[in-house]
Amino acid sequence: MSWNTFATVAETVAALAAKQVSAVELATHYLDRANGLQSTLNTYITLDRDRTLAEAKAADAKRAAGDASTLLGVPIAHKDIYLIDGWRTTCGSKMLENFVAPYTSTVVKNMSDAGMVTLGKLNMDEFAMGSSNESSYFGTVKNPWDVSRVPGGSSGGSAAAVAAGLTPASTGTDTGGSIRQPAMFCNLTGLKPTYGVCSRFGIVAYASSLDQAGPFAQTAEDCALLLNAMAGFDAHDATSLERERENYARDLAKPLAGLRIGLPKEFFGKGVAPGIAKAVDSALEVYRKLGAVTVDISLPNVKYSVPAYYVVAPAEASSNLSRFDGVRYGHRADEFTDLLDMYKRSRAEGFGAEVKRRILIGTYVLSHGYYDAYYLQAGKLRRLIAEDFKRAYEVCDVVMGPTAPETAFPFGAKTDDPVTMYLNDIFTVVANLTGQPALSHPCGTDENGQHVGMQIIGNYLDEARMLNVAHQFQLATDWHKRHPSI
Amino acid sequence: MAQWEVVIGLETHVQLTTVSKIFSGSSTAFGAAPNTQASVVDLALPGALPVMNKGAAERAVKFGLAIGAKINQRSIFARKNYFYPDLPKGYQISQFETPIVEGGGLTITLDDGSTKFIELTRAHLEEDAGKSVHNEFDGASGVDLNRAGTPLLEIVTEPVMRSAKEAIAYAKTLHNLVRSLDICDGNMQEGSFRCDVNVSVRPVGQKEFGTRREIKNLNSFKFMQQAIDYEVRWQIEQIEDGHKIVQATVLFNPDTGETRAMRTKEDAMDYRYFPDPDLPPLVVTDEMLASIKSTMPELPEAKCARFVSQYVLSEYDARLLSQDSATANFYEAATKAGADAKLVANWMLSDLSAALNRDEKTFDQSPVSSAQLAGLITRISDGTISNKIGKSVFEALWNGEGQTADAVIEAKGLKQISDSGAIEKIVDEVLAKSAAQIADFKSGKEKALMSIVGMVMKASAGKANPAQVNDIVRRKISAL
Fold it and tell me: Does residue B371 sit in the same domain as residue B467?
């Protein structure tokens, strides 16, 4: 069998339906390729060939028995933040190096129920904290386009795996841009849905009010197919939205004539690298040719988004990560003198530097006397930013701008200066603070050949329209069809 | 020497009667093998999320309505962060700034019959912690998370009590109320009702409160009384000796009868409260409120008034019988079974209460059922047995020696002898042997008659109708 390793999910679905390929053949192909490139890219933390092939066999048996579910037999790899019963789930941390999950997250269960075959668990920044995948305890993930550069983070493994053709699609999570920024760095389409569309149950929590699961794929169409499987109300998650399931692919074919694209002046300022600004401008030209109109808007409060984010996220993280105490599971220090010493040593040994930094920041901002000045204030800013968007959607349908102010950077470029690293999230954290859906799609390259992403921020629950917009762009362009020679 | 005034406020943890935990589906039943009632949520596994149990909110609302409090239709869950092995998430989910119940209060009655209104500050929902298990493993402690996540309503009073007596009366009234509302089983041994008591003293006439110390986790009224008495004495001594009271949390040791500081304010923890992002605001809808209002049981105050008018009881008896639903239900069942209302009250408040207290049982655990007691009382009322024989029938029923009073009377041949021929025969026999007593009586000693009647009763094994015996003895002696 010769299989195009860069086949899209839609193409894979068609090939499976036409019985041109079996689920076992696909799983074998991607597992072989993943193993072959593991030492080069370090995308996976855990592979389990037997389990994967067993799932693939079961999928083939179902198809033989007449099951015609769309995604039946399509391989999928999961960020190692999703618990899957029986699979080691590390969250990129020494703390959970040997933690085998005893239950399955709702999103993975939904995808398994749809017939998808789990290829393995993908590398990530430790506890999803990072923008470059350099904080993983299991080593950095290399960008398949240029192995001297970062793949982005925190879902770096998820992006690199799809870009390198190690899987047709993957899952990620996005707390401040962890899907969209690596999607840009690796020339992929990545979607963070509206907060509450995908259940958070069984996903290791980073910042509960910001975390959201989403797909990585090569195309917007693929993201729509994947979101159809991932999304849905879950009674195990009190923040999950109770609503009817929808078909996110329903509007893909709609023409863009009359689409109003809001361009916030705050997203096109001096902080944006010239190569990125240029690529985004050209992409907007394509949109205009497709019949869209652009509207200049202003979101005056988004300038507070990075400070607000770096109060809210560490605050919630400091509390969410308290459960990793060495008592019930996870890393426990070998030697300690008493209970307090056990806590201190287990956590000091189990957590990496970036995680500790955020726990310290979070503990500080929640401390007595500081809560009002930081967390409460950040909460007010979130509402102000949301009001900015509400006003914007009176004059436009979607908001666009660059996904990140810089393209993929070399390893070590920002590790000594956390603040510069944090500023890389400047355009992405906004949608997490407000809970709106946002995606990034490929829209060009800069002068170094590094990939530029266009971010589309939609109104609440407007995923179908955003995917339609990106899909129409992809019908008219071929940026998303480029693959690394690896 | 200065006169001291005691100031007391209570925080009571009331375990709610939901079948499952406040944020997970695990059972709340007491006494299961360690960690068998702990789900992924209770174990705080990575990725586990809390989901609010509506039943706990309904019970909190029920309580709020019963005490005339303000129900916050939108209340907020917050995280109280601290590390401890029995706290698996590293934080307790509680309510901080916006509790579900605010204000309200309840009236207590003191031994002298006087009443006082105790204002409540608030009542909020929270989850219980697990338990550390010591001395079971060599060189290590264990953790049992069965109790982790059990729903609690923490009920906080204003510092309005002025004596241990008032504090105990409040705690008892509250204990009765939560049981009548059926929101708590009230089992203090199992920890379903635990009190933290804040105590301070100040010179009479001083406006400002003294520095308080908090006695933690008292799970019996007796201990509460002892702990407060000791604490008050200790605080007064300290101040009179020229020391300052340092704000502290203290534990009561029932073995020594003393309180001992656990931690002082200096090492008080910073709990870093913030709203729990996993839980949306708890919303009590108008419909929910209306439906709870429509199912409110009769409250102790109203029940007491009804008992006075319906059963013609004294205020005192009515209060005792209406204080909790187990007692009230027993009373009404026995009355409904046809027994005399006043006699049922007497029996319940004397013999039955004494027996229950002796065996540490409540009315709903009584070995003598309301139907059995009613049957017994009916037989006393209709003269089948004397009151005295009634007590031995009661003992027999208590010991399970018969299904009904009638069966016991029958089996033991306790039926009262009201046949005057039979009684006269016994009287004749006794009089024949009682020349001295007869002489005494004739010389004016009334007591001698009682002695003769006693001998007759004894000879009849207590079965002779005492009134009849009295008449016959008098008649026969005067005819001599």
Answer: no
| Residue A476 confidence class, pLDDT cut points 50, 70, 90 | very high
Q: To which residue do tokens 């430790």 refer?
A: A126
Residues from chain A contacting residue B90 (CB–CB below 8 Å): 319, 321-323, 325
For the record, the structure tokens of B441 come out as 């009586």
Give A139's Cβ-side CA count (13 Å radius).
12
Which DSSP category does A253 fall into? T
Clarify whether residues B258 and B392 are in a common domain.
no
| CATH code where residue B431 lies | 1.10.10.410
Which residue, B364, B392, B412, sits at the end of a domain? B412
How far is C-alpha A442 from the chain's CA centre? 15
CB contact under 8 A, A200 and B47: yes
Three-state DSSP class for residue B60: helix
| CB-based contact, A83 to chain B, within 8 Å | yes
Tens digits of residue pLDDT in A266-318: 999 888 999 999 999 999 999 999 999 999 999 999 999 999 999 999 999 99
- How many other C-beta atoms can be found within 10 angstroms of the C-beta atom of residue A174? 30
Kindly give the residue spans of alpha helices, DSSP state H, lying in A367-454.
377-392, 418-423, 429-434
Shared-domain flag, residues B354 and B472: no
Q: Scanning the structure block, which residue is given the tokens 């503990």?
A: A363
B377, B412, B447 - which closes a domain = B412
CB proximity list for B356: less than 8 A, separation 6 or greater = B362, B363, B365, B366
Strands A398-402 and A260-264: parallel
| Consecutive H or E run containing A53 | helix A49-64
> What domain range includes position B442?
420-479
B366 is written with which tokens? 């009584």
Q: How many structural domains are present in chain B?
A: 3
Q: From residue A209, how far is each of A91, A129, A215, A319, B330 by CA, in Å?
A: 19, 15, 19, 12, 52
Per-residue pLDDT reduced to its tens digit, A327-358: 999 999 999 999 999 999 999 999 999 999 99
Is the C-alpha dihedral spanning B331, B336, B340, B341 positive or negative? Answer: positive
Cβ-based contacts of A339 with chain B (< 8 Å):
85
What are the backbone dihedrals phi and psi of residue B72, each rounded to the nearest 5 degrees, phi first? -80, 115
Q: Are residues B393 and B428 in the same domain?
A: no
**Are both B234 and B305 inside the same structural domain?**
no
Q: What's the gap in Å between the CA of A209 and the closest CA on chain B? A: 5
Q: Does the structure show a pLDDT above 60 at B1?
A: no
Contact between A78 and A84 under an 8 Å Cβ cutoff? The reply is yes
Annotated catalytic residue A199: no
How many whole angstroms separate alpha carbon B184 and alpha carbon B193?
Answer: 8
Helices (H), B133-220: 164-180
B419-B420-B422-B423 Cα dihedral, nearest 10 degrees: 120
Can you say whether residue B338 is alpha, beta or left, with left for phi > 0 and alpha for psi between -120 and 50 degrees? left
Looking at residue B428, its pLDDT comes to 87
Same domain, B49 and B197: yes
C-alpha span between A173 and B233 (Å, rounded): 60
Distance from the first to the final alpha carbon of chain A:
20
Contacts of B458 (CB under 8 A, 6+ apart): none
User: Is residue A123 a contact partner of residue A45, using CB atoms and an 8 Å limit?
Assistant: yes
Q: Are residues B21 and B153 in the same domain?
A: yes
What is the rounded distance in angstroms from the CA atom of residue A203 to the CA atom of residue A216? 17
Phi, psi (5° rounding) for residue A319? -80, -45
Distance (Å, whole) CA A269 – CA A302: 12
Among B278, B279, B282, B283, most A C-beta atoms within 10 A, so best to mutate, is B278
Whether B86 and B61 map to the same domain: the answer is yes
Tokens linked to A458: 């939609």
Contact A160, A41 (CB under 8 A): yes
Identify the architecture of domain A9-230 in CATH.
Alpha-Beta Complex (3.90)
Pairing of strands B115-127, B101-102: antiparallel
